[in-house]
Amino acid sequence: MKKAAYVAFIGRPNVGKSTLLNSILKEHLCITSKKHQTTREKILGIDTYDDFQFVYQDLPGYINPHNELQKKMKEDVENGIKDADIIIFMVEAGEKRESYSELISIVQKHPDVILVVNKIDIQNIDPGWEELADEMGWNIITLCALNGKRVDRLKDILEEKAPEVESFYYDKDYLTDRSERFIVKEYIRETSLEIYRSEIPHELFVDVVNMIEEEDIIKIKAIIYVARNSQKGIVIGQNGKMIKKLGKESRIKLEKFFSKKIFLELNVKIKEKWFNNESILSGMKKDYGVWE
Q1: pTM to 2 decimals?
Q2: Where are the annotated segments for G3 (predicted)?
Q3: What is the DSSP secondary-structure string of 87-120?
Q4: What number of H helices and E strands is found in the chain?
Q5: Residue where one domain finishes, among candidates 134, 165, 196
Q6: Within a 10 A sphere around the Cβ of 258, how many other Cβ atoms?
Q7: Does the annotation list 15 as a binding residue?
Q8: How many domains is the chain built from?
Q9: Does 76 carry a binding-site annotation?
């Protein structure tokens, strides 16, 4: 007997959804940051065992949109809820239930929800979460996504809930439905979140224009697009200091992920108000291609 399920991670920005998925997969598949709106696009993480397969959707944090990019992010969340067999509704232990009223009203429409209370290592759990789980008839589990505490218990609950299937959705060796180019773009963007301040990381996007894999090296050429002319100089830095740092730290991460030497060339260009440009946002959807 085989069991499989599509599992969607739902929650506010920066609640730990991507960290939890990385912990489950034991791979740094999803980029993480302490800054809000790190996840822009949904990512599938595929976790397969002898008799179980879970296809996890790491969805963007739920926000009220202010531009076309954020509207797209909100649509991804709403569609993810519809498509999922099981919802992991993730909150921080110390947050108040009352501040989640809108998101709760959306999530409660789904027939199978697990309430995951994260960050129990640094926060005391608000009693409102246990009351909510009782009222809704949801499973509730407290855990720490960062150090993996009680993550195995979450997987046990998922195994109990997963429906029976005749065959798995993906080959057992697959890790994600995203292309290698997408992984490269996300790692570069994650590094930008770490090294740049203010609004810069949230107003840039990365385009991989060329990626050639040879026997002992992967050669990558990428463009960093910023939304305003004033941002270009900040991204490059004095005498190219910051763009060199971005390239070096991104390359180190990519070499670790791909287990191969990386040559990374970065250039910076301006694309004004790209986050309201439909052709650019549509292009984000092209980075699918299941790989191991």
Answers
A1: 0.78
A2: 58-61
A3: EEEEEETTS-GGGGHHHHHHHTTSS-EEEEEE-T
A4: 9, 12
A5: 165
A6: 15
A7: yes
A8: 2
A9: no
